[in-house]
Amino acid sequence: MQAVIDGKASTRKPAPERPRPASRRVDLVIDIQERMCQSKGPTYERWAKIYNLRQMAGALQYLLENGLTDYEALAAKTTAADRVHTLAGELQAVEAELDKTGHLMGAVVDYAKTRPVFDGYKTARYSKKYLAQHEGELATYRAARATMNDILAGAKLPKMDALKKSHRELAKKKEALYADYRAAQRQMRELVAVKGNVEHLLGLTDGRENKAQER
Predict the structure, then answer these.
(1) Domain ranges across the chain
(2) In whole angstroms, what is the distance from residue 147 CA to residue 105 CA?
(3) pTM reported for the whole predicted model
(4) Contact, 36 vs 57, CB < 8 A?
(5) Nearest partner of 202 among 82, 34, 21, 67, judged by Cα
(6) How many whole angstroms separate alpha carbon 182 and alpha carbon 215?
(7) Residues in contact with 211: Cβ distance below 8 Å, sequence separation at least 6, in sequence order
(8) CA–CA gap between residue 145 and residue 106 (Å, rounded)
(9) How many whole angstroms separate alpha carbon 46 and alpha carbon 208?
(10) How far apart (Å, rounded) are the C-alpha atoms in residues 34 and 159?
(11) Phi/psi at 50 (nearest 5 deg)?
């Protein structure tokens, strides 16, 4: 640097080096505690306009409780939304299966109730008079049979007790998955909020401004 000032060295800027991953590691707990104790400086004043000490104390407590002592760990955990997406997919699949089982159970009940009417229709040799008298029941019978054929796709029809058991198990699984999904969503939102607070306090939200301050 002194050689450049004295004119003994070239003033051409060297090619920028790629940042090393280790240099991006930040001891968040120490850094945040130091910033919270500061009362002067443009960084603190800019942050204080948006966030108060109570919010940052909450972020600090969260980092300590979850062992997130460097920025990269916090950023990685925040962007790792795989669990939320996985739970959403599992929940959707269970809901679809639950809906299918419910429709099948309903179709089986309708089929059982209207099958005697259809048998009577056949016995009456498909009489128009019989059809007129039982048109609604026969329509229900045909719809129930079509639904069962569509859902089963050639598979054997399970007994009603088995369908009821499956429906109860699916309902319990849906309830558990939904609770896990909501918890994962809350955790993700909390992580995003904490990461935002940390980035504002440490001046990590505006890369151009940080580079200008480092020159």
Answers:
(1) 82-188
(2) 10
(3) 0.62
(4) yes
(5) 34
(6) 45
(7) none
(8) 11
(9) 16
(10) 68
(11) -110, -40
User: Can you give the pLDDT at residue 120?
Assistant: 97
What residues have CB less than 8 Å from 24, skipping those under 6 apart?
71, 72
Find residue 27's DSSP bridge partners: 70
Rounded Cα–Cα distance for residues 165 and 129 (Å): 42
H, E, C per residue of the chain: CHHHHCCCCCCCCCCCCCCCHHHHCCEHHHHHHHHHHCCCCHHHHHHHCCCCHHHHHHHHHHHHHCCCCEHHHHHHHHHCCHHHHHHHHHHHHHHHHHHHHHHHHHHHHHHHHHHHHHHHHHHCCCCHHHHHHCHHHHHHHHHHHHHHHHHHCCCCCCCHHHHHHHHHHHHHHHHHHHHHHHHHHHHHHHHHHHHHHHHHHHCCCCHHHHHHHHC
**Contact (Cβ atoms closer than 8 angstroms) between residue 198 and residue 71:** yes
Strand partners, 70: 27
179 CB-side CA count, 13 A: 5
**Which pLDDT belongs to residue 21?**
39
How do the pLDDT tens digits run along the chain, 215 residues long?
A: 344 334 444 445 555 554 443 333 345 555 555 655 654 556 555 555 555 566 666 777 777 777 776 777 777 776 666 788 899 999 999 999 999 999 999 999 999 999 999 999 999 999 999 999 999 999 999 999 999 999 999 999 999 999 999 999 999 999 999 999 999 888 888 777 777 777 766 666 554 344 434 44
Joined together, the tokens standing for residue 211 give 């580079």
pLDDT score recorded for residue 99? 98
